[in-house]
Amino acid sequence: MKKLLIALAMCGLSMGAMAQETTADPTLKHSVATNSFWSNWFIQAGADWNAFYSNQEHGQGLDRSPFKKFRATPGFSVAIGKWFTPGLGLRTKFSGVWGRNVIDEHKHDNNHWTLNENVLFNLSNMIYGYNETRVWNFVPFVGAGINRTCDYNRYAMNLSAGILNTFRLSKHVGLYFELGWNWAEPDFDGNVNGNPNSDSRVWDSHDNKLYAELGLQFNLGKSTWNKTPDVDAIKALSQSQIDALNAQLNDANAENARLKSLLAAKKDEPVANDVKAYYNAPLSVFFNLNKYNIASRKDLVNVKNLAEYAKENNSNLVVTGYADSATGSAPYNQKLSERRAETVANELVKMGVSRDQITTEGKGGVKDLSPVSYNRRATVKLAD
């Protein structure tokens, strides 16, 4: 029996540590590390019905029914306990019984009390994981303690085992139903002689008590379990994030290499046609009313760039002059437009373009643009 008790206790310690509930957050878990000394205490108070079987009755053929008056009697109990993990706890229990000394089929009183220490194993949490709102918990227990017979003023050691069923009514109140067995030394009932006809070392050679108990359980203070960081899960999550970042970095490096390769290939392609298309859009130089001198030298900035290109590529330029048709006669506007073209051509020559590369023409008075002043201009472009 002692070996069984030690084995069950070690099993409860190991299973209680492992049987934590899996949560939605992978970096948190229920852990005994969060259980302070003052957490997860409980008290119990209940009434029980007891049936006594003595070692003296062996061989007498007495009725074994637990409801016979010569062996059945009521009792009460109070207990205090603490859960150290969701699966493992300890309980100190005091029971008082208006007991029986069973030696025949007549009632013989043997009032006594029992003080036991029990190891509790919450198999519901161990097997299915911790759940603070679970209605029913299945809790086997084993233990040991001492009996005192008040009628015979004797003490006797005992072992105990049973099943505790708890039912959640609220966060701090529950109902419990317990079935148990106390196995006591043979002089528990005051009879020190025992039964010489008994050769059994378990039942018939000792005094036994079976009981069924119903009562209330009160959870004191904090009765649930906190979640603490799961170091292994955090490490795994951190590594997965590092792997994801490394994958993104590798993708970025591959994209950079691809772009560099494209850029190197583009450097070997001819670009003259692209530049010509850019400069072939007409560049405008504007003039004041009835004037053929340039209104703003700023208009020549882009013209100078085009002149540089024409020199480098030996390209021809076309300069076209305009006047607005809203003022002046047609012959006057024709002459004015030609002079404006010549003015811009002269500027191109000053910029280093050969006069032989420049063609000028005048379009006279026009009304192509709005407002009217935008028609007082000359344009420069590459010859087609």
Report what the structure shows.
It is a single chain. With 384 residues, the protein is α+β, with helices and mostly antiparallel strands. It has 2 domains: 2-229, Porin (Beta Barrel), CATH 2.40.160; 272-382, 60s Ribosomal Protein L30, Chain: A. 27% of the residues lie in helices and 35% in strands. It has 6 helices and 14 strands. The protein has helices at 2-18, 123-128, 231-267, 272-279, 300-313, 330-350, and strands at 28-30, 41-53, 72-83, 88-97, 112-121, 136-149, 154-168, 173-184, 207-220, 227-229, 283-286, 317-324, 358-366, 377-382. Strands 2-3-4-5-6-7-8-9 form an 8-stranded antiparallel beta barrel. A hairpin with a 4-residue loop joins strand 6 (136-149) and strand 7 (154-168). The chain is rod-shaped and about 150 Å long. The N and C termini lie far apart (112 Å). 30% of the residues are buried.
Notable features of this structure?
single chain; 384 residues; alpha+beta; Porin; 60s Ribosomal Protein L30, Chain: A; 2 domains; eight-stranded antiparallel beta barrel; 6 helices; 14 strands; rod-shaped; disordered N terminus
